[in-house]
Amino acid sequence: MGGRIASQVAARDPAPGCPSGLVFLGYPLHPPGRPDQRRMAHWPRITVPALFVQGARDPFASPEELSSALSEFGGPTTVEIVEGGDHSFKIAGGAARQRDVTARVQSVVAEWIRKTRR
């Protein structure tokens, strides 16, 4: 499920099967070019830990926009920025560099899950 919908599910009353953590691969904080239309009203109700992996060139949220918004998030947060990455973590430099980015994102997610697992 996409990050925005997953976060809305996590913001509901806790129930069996609710997530124990969230991994956002490019959270769509706002529509591109519309930073005034933030999609985070439900964030204060989320109490589980969350990892935000965000491209430095993501038109849905710059690292600065994300950082300033995280004070509204109800649970603990970790942020990993993909330098040069867009919303899909695509970077310039060819396939070999892209494979390195993909491997790094996978490693960051796996390590966060290991540390966060309850």
Secondary-structure blueprint of this entry?
Layout: H1 3-10, E1 22-25, E2 50-55, H2 63-69, E3 77-82, H3 95-116
Parallel strand pairs: 1-2, 2-3
Please give a handful of descriptors for the protein shown.
Rossmann fold; three-stranded parallel beta sheet; alpha/beta; 118 residues
Q: How many structural units, i.e. domains?
A: 1
Total E-strand runs:
3
Task: Give the termini separation.
Answer: 22 Å
CATH superfamily: Alpha/Beta hydrolase fold, catalytic domain
**Which CATH C-level class is it?**
Alpha Beta
Reported for the largest beta sheet, the result is: 3 strands, parallel
Mean pLDDT: 92
CATH architecture: 3-Layer(aba) Sandwich
Helix-strand pattern, N to C? HEEHEH
User: What is the structural class?
Assistant: alpha/beta
The portion of residues assigned to helices is 25-40%
Q: How many helix segments?
A: 3
Low-pLDDT stretches: none
| Spatial strand order of the main sheet | 1-2-3
Report on this model:
The structure is a single chain. It contains three helices and three strands, in the order H-E-E-H-E-H. It is α/β, with parallel strands linked by helices. The chain has a single domain (3-116), classed as Alpha/Beta hydrolase fold, catalytic domain (Rossmann fold, 3-Layer(aba) Sandwich). A three-stranded parallel sheet has the order 1-2-3, sandwiched between helices. Strand 2 (50-55), helix 2 and strand 3 (77-82) form a beta-alpha-beta unit. The model has no long low-confidence stretch (mean pLDDT 92).
